[in-house]
Amino acid sequence: MSKPARPGAAPAAGTQPGLVVAGFGRHVLVETASGERVICHPRGKKNQALVGDRIRWLPTQDEGTIEKIETRSNLFYRQDEMRTKSFAANLDQVLILIAAEPEFSESQLTRALIAAEAERITPIIALNKSDLSEPFGRAWTKLAPYRAMGYRMLPLAVKPKFDAAENAAQTAELMELLRGKKTLMLGPSGAGKSSLTNLLIPQAKVLTAEISQALNSGKHTTTSTTLYWVDEARTTALIDSPGFQEFGLNHIQPMQLATLMPDLKAHAQNCKFYNCTHLHEPGCGVISEVNLAGGQGSISASRYRLYSELFAELSQERRY
Ligand SMILES: Nc1nc2c(ncn2[C@@H]2O[C@H](COP(=O)(O)OP(=O)(O)OP(=O)(O)O)[C@@H](O)[C@H]2O)c(=O)[nH]1
Ligand SMILES: [Zn+2]
């Protein structure tokens, strides 16, 4: 009998390397070294393999079992009201896709950025629908503080109402950023995630249908996280996680939060107390920056409000 898969455990004899390219519940689709795809089941109750995981698997009749999950370089979580679950691993970067319309939520954006910072992953912010010039201008302005924080940001028109010369250039710039990397794409409903997937991976719809057929006995599902190769050489990957709502941040300590927000971090070193929560302490560098006359400071009132709300949320989650 083989031992249950455990991250970092020694591989069992006869196992083969593979990459998890889709996940549905406890079953995953594994891509073999030669590019074939096999459904694999986990051995044991724990250690669910995630999209992006490098694994060792063992063939059974027409399927396989996962014998080992290689050590992960990072791990991403999502959360709903009920609980936090991990859903993707070993990412190189995160593409946060938002749009001129519907108006993006600064809270959702901030949460996604914090989750990326916590895993030391570079986030890219893409603002879609640059063809809608008026709302686009407003949204671009709203993003000014995030550009000032140093985040990589680019305009995009994935599926413009009217084609313009710059659309192709914007897509090309994005492609340049994605090249050779595994990128998790996320964003609110209506931002253009499926449009972007279809643009970069024209066969995505067919692949998705095949995957849900294979993993879910033909029942249509949109809840699986899927890794799509953008190029034939399989060096550039886009990971789509439909139904995405919120990043799971419960694993983050409240006292860690300010170090994951570059605008706050820059002023936290001026605090009088080393364990300052930046909520009420005298001599707090963060609070004095927020209170600079006329809102001239580099920490906006809305970012500071998000910080205090998240601080309260993370302090509560810890109790159960
Ligand atoms: N004007 C304009 N509309 C766009 C652009 N890109 C996408 N859209 C439209 O925006 C709407 C939403 O696009 P989707 O690709 O379905 O967005 P999504 O993020 O996948 O949304 P969900 O499936 O709800 O998560 C569609 O009607 C698209 O045609 C763009 O660059 N410009
Ligand atoms: Zn402080």
From TrEMBL:
Entry function: One of several proteins that assist in the late maturation steps of the functional core of the 30S ribosomal subunit. Helps release RbfA from mature subunits. May play a role in the assembly of ribosomal proteins into the subunit. Circularly permuted GTPase that catalyzes slow GTP hydrolysis, GTPase activity is stimulated by the 30S ribosomal subunit.
InterPro entries given in the database record: G_CP_dom (IPR030378), NA-bd_OB-fold (IPR012340), P-loop_NTPase (IPR027417), Ribosome_biogen_GTPase_RsgA (IPR004881), RsgA_GTPase_dom (IPR010914), RsgA_N (IPR031944)
Subunit description: Monomer. Associates with 30S ribosomal subunit, binds 16S rRNA.
Domain CP-type G, chain residue ranges per copy: 78-247
EC number: 3.6.1.-
Binding site for Zn(2+): C271, C276, H278, C284
Keyword Coiled coil attributed: no
The protein's name in its UniProt record: Small ribosomal subunit biogenesis GTPase RsgA
Binding site for GTP: N128, K129, S130, D131, G187, P188, S189, G190, A191, G192, K193, S194, S195
UniProt organism field: Polaromonas aquatica
Pfam families given in the database record: RsgA_GTPase (PF03193)
NCBIfam families per the UniProt record, alphabetical: ribosome small subunit-dependent GTPase A
UniProt entry keywords in alphabetical sequence: Cytoplasm, GTP-binding, Hydrolase, Metal-binding, Nucleotide-binding, Ribosome biogenesis, RNA-binding, rRNA-binding, Zinc
Known cofactor(s): Zn(2+)
Principal location class: cytoplasm
Cofactor note: Binds 1 zinc ion per subunit.
Enzyme class name: hydrolase
Annotated compartments: Cytoplasm
Entry-linked CDD domains: S1_YloQ_GTPase (cd04466), YjeQ_EngC (cd01854)
Stated family: Belongs to the TRAFAC class YlqF/YawG GTPase family. RsgA subfamily.
Domain EngC GTPase as annotated: residue spans: 89-245
